[in-house]
Amino acid sequence: MKIYKALLLTAAILLFLATLAALSLPYGFFTFLRIIVCGVAVYAAIQVRDSVVALIGLLMVAFLFNPLVPIHLPQQIWRIIDLATAAAFIRLAFKPSKRQNQQEF
Fold it and tell me: Where are the transmembrane segments (predicted)?
């Protein structure tokens, strides 16, 4: 489970970096970001077994960030999506699963 949390937090950090307007990041960074976020979202969707809403949300994130067929949106909209996705990844990383709670007792 530690790898799962580390991946979610890494993707969240990259998403926060992408929203910084002061940075003029090369296009390659955004391609790298798409690959990482899509992969983490698919992996997290496989790991999430206790919430259908989280599963659907993660699959939507994977679709939005897929590197094979990029979705082109204005930069302002991508910033909102990046921040929302980063916040969701952080929430998932720190949310205890039902299985963890059951194993503690």
Answer: 31-46, 53-71, 77-94
Q: What share of the chain is helix, strand, coil (3-state, %, to 5)?
A: 75, 0, 25
Q: Which CA distances in Å does 100 have to 50, 86, 92?
A: 11, 23, 13
Total-model pTM: 0.80
- Mean pLDDT, 10 residues at a time, the chain of 105 residues: 81 81 74 90 86 90 93 88 88 72 44
Pure H helices in 20-74? 27-47, 52-64
Calpha distance 25→50 (Å, rounded): 37
